Amino acid sequence: MRIFKKVFLIYLLAEFLGGYTGMLNGPHSYAWGQSVYGPALSQSLTVSTVAPPANTPLLGTSNLFCSGSAGSFSAGTFVVAYTYTGTASSSETKASSDGGATLTTLVTCPTNGTLTIPSPPSPPGCFNCVGWRPYVIASSSGTGAELLQTITAANCILATTASLTSCAIGSSFTETSLGAGAAEPSNPTLFTPTPGGFASLSEANLGIVGHYLTWTTTGTAATCTVAVQTSSDNISFSTVGTAQTCTSSGAYWVNATAANFTRVNITAFTASGANTPSIAFTLAESLGAVPVYSITNCGTTTTCTPNATLSNPQIKIVVGTCTAAAATTCTVTAMPAFTSTTSYVCNVTDQTTAANGALKAANVSSSSFTITTASSSDTFSYVCVGT
Fold first, then answer.
1. Number of other CB atoms surrounding residue 184 within 10 Å
2. What's residue 26's pLDDT?
3. What is the torsion angle, in degrees rounded to the nearest 10, for the CA atoms of residue 18, residue 20, residue 25 and residue 29?
4. DSSP assignment of 28-62, as one string?
5. Closest CA to 371 of 327, 307, 311
6. Residues 6+ away with beta carbon under 8 Å from 322
7. pLDDT at 134
8. Are the C-beta atoms of 303 and 363 separated by less than 8 Å?
9. What's the rounded Cα separation, in Å, for the pair 203 and 261?
10. Whole-angstrom distance, CA of residue 311 vs CA of residue 250
11. Block mean pLDDT (10 aa), the chain, length 387
């Protein structure tokens, strides 16, 4: 019986690896949102934090101007910083550096002077970066203390599509008095592209039912949630399976009925402090159902921590080790739940006493089983397979 179980497990692993490899080899890579008629589809997209504008050379002393007598500035030295703004609600980068202790972004104003700040250039590759905001403070206030200036149509050409009141990129900002608005942003909230529902894959008449989403997270994201969604009309979408947390790299398998359109929807993505996360998503689509195997390694603890997530799995494989207590038992709990107590079987091997054959594996529930042995403190390896 033990030999039969091992052969069966090898067969399952071979089937899993074969299906998995074949699925990944099949799709082709295209730009996100492109319609492709063929045996499979694959789309990739990276969402990244937009870096703040660079100070040099625009915020150097040769480009900042404070002159004339039509304003109401007090005579003195002022430090300047600026941010980019985007099309999404309240999306803004962190402020450009003021040079630290050296305060390199300085401008000297005469009494009643007027301050002019040049616009930063458009950041490369950021189509949703549409505006910028100036921050200014007296240099005596120290580093990182710049305050948002009052932005109106009298100061600059406004960015018409930004949700935050901003100057349009390319338009300089001029003011006659020092504003005292909000402090510099503490967290970056501007990403490219904007998190949300991305362009969908057109799958009409293709019969796509398998979806395999992977993501690679670089840096530290405070929050990240992603969902695979389908639609019949490319307007109203619904989530397939469950939304996934993407603050760290991972993968998600899900099968569903064929739909005309599929998209990936990033419902939350935030950064914290100086962190600048970037997340690369890839969605592979398949004409057939994605092989729904889950392999979970519970490690050496008796309380299992699942390391695989998928929707409606057909076959689960759970592996791990545990050490028997003085009562010669070892109970593994919190496994990914099988369908029922009787829908899986566990194969157990004594790693401490090779000759010990008096082993018993009893299913306690759909997510827990107990190993009983004649020898106390032995360590066991186990493989549980079922549906």
1. 21
2. 30
3. 170
4. --EETT----SSEEEEEEEEEEPPPPP-TTTTSTT
5. 327
6. 300, 301, 302, 330, 332, 371, 379, 380, 382
7. 96
8. no
9. 5
10. 14
11. 45 42 31 40 88 77 81 92 91 89 86 93 89 94 92 95 90 94 93 86 78 91 93 92 91 84 92 90 80 74 68 76 81 88 90 76 94 82 90
**How many whole angstroms separate alpha carbon 115 and alpha carbon 177?**
8
What DSSP assignment string belongs to 320-336?
EEEE--TTSEEEEB-PP
pLDDT for the residue 17: 40
Question: What pLDDT is recorded for position 132?
Answer: 95
Both tokens assigned to 37: 């008629």
Neighbours of 344 (CB within 10 A): 22
Q: What is the pLDDT of residue 207?
A: 77
Query: 70 exposed, middle or buried (CB, 10 Å; 0-12, 13-18, 19+)?
Result: exposed
Which two three-digit tokens encode residue 161?
């599509």
pLDDT of residue 3: 45
Those residues with Cβ within 8 angstroms of residue 3's Cβ, 6 or more apart along the chain or in another chain: none
Query: What pLDDT, on the 0 to 100 scale, is given for residue 286?
Result: 79
Domains of the chain from N-terminus onward: 27-49+193-286 (2.60.120), 65-189 (no CATH), 293-386 (2.60.40)
Task: State residue 290's pLDDT score.
Answer: 61
> In whole angstroms, how large is the CA radius of gyration of the chain?
29
Return d(Cα 245, Cα 177) in angstroms, integer. 47
